[in-house]
Specification:
about 15% strand; alpha/beta; six-stranded parallel β-sheet; 16 helices; about 425 residues
Amino acid sequence: MSSTYLISPAGHPNYGDELIAAAWLRHLATSRPEDEVWLDCPNPGLATELFHGIHPGLRVTNTLWRACWEAPSDDPAVVMAHVAGLVTHLGSPAFDLGLERLRQVDTLHFLGGGYLNDLWPIHAGLVAGAVAAKALSGARLVGTGLSLVPILRSSADDGASSGAPFLDLLQTFDHLSVRDEPSAQAAGTTLGLDDAFLGVEEQLTRGLARGGADLMVCLQSDLQTPEHRARVIESVERTVSRARDEGRTIQYVEAIPGIDRPAYDALSHLIDPDCFVPFISVWREGIPLRPDQTWLTTRFHLHFLAAAAGASGTAIGVRDGFYDIKHQSLIALGSGWTYRDSSAGGDIALPDHAPAAARFTSERRTRADSKRREADALYPVRPGPSPDRRGLAPSRIAQSLRGVMARDRPAAS
């Protein structure tokens, strides 16, 4: 029996992260049902509930995430050295049981998403810890559907800022795919697809069976200033009011509990309480979808699923250098949506519905097949020989780790 160790920000809950984790667990339930599968994520208790029953061998922990949180500094160089040191040397009763497990698995797999970047610099420790485990065990190290922008940088000893140590660690991966062109350029790899393509067909089946309103709205409250949030809500409020006057039905979808609620509260005089779709309903029954809908959302994976269903919409910018790249990656694939810059004000037009997402919809199965081929190549369905644990030359991995651990400091007591 082999073991797979998945690393993901799942369990927040955040609809996109949960969608991706569930898709990989379903794939592994088909291709590796006898395997032990570990999911290392920030909230193992909630993740256990979200993914209960998907894979029979699922175990959930937060070993690497906790190691990052407890580093003596939030400078990514310090966090990387701290976590790599813990994995390599052990010696901490609070971590050793989990780290010993990490050092024994056959595959370490970073699931897709936009969590390895400069917005959350301590997450660099996740990669450093995985690379350290690979150097010890020879485990296969892979990443799929990742977004790396804005590029994670740390302060060097001379006061300069550099992304080199983190990017160097990515070169030790046995397989790496990214979902946007800037990430591909930074990592020196070819452009791939978002991991949500692995679960798109199942989610569309559920969502389209559920149906939905004429106009769908979801606006987040994080990663933006209060002034920007107020400006976005004001623009959407005018658009929703006009849609209501025209007799359109309206629903508000919650992708992250709490974070997506303030905008609904501000719009609740225009959207009936029964038309608020909470995360738990989305997770159990799917996103309410119709091909003739119009969407207004800041959320990337709502843009993804709605466009895949054939709906038109406007993706509203939240943070330049992050969400604009995410949404533009879907527009480049033919989502047909309009992107509204984060600094824009004024009304948001509701176009007469047209098959704006025709290209995205018509090509989604081809792209889903491509993502499945990537998954099948990583985890073949038919039993085969034990995983090739040779990976990259140990000297190459050790060289990268030395650069990270050069600034190693004693862990805080």
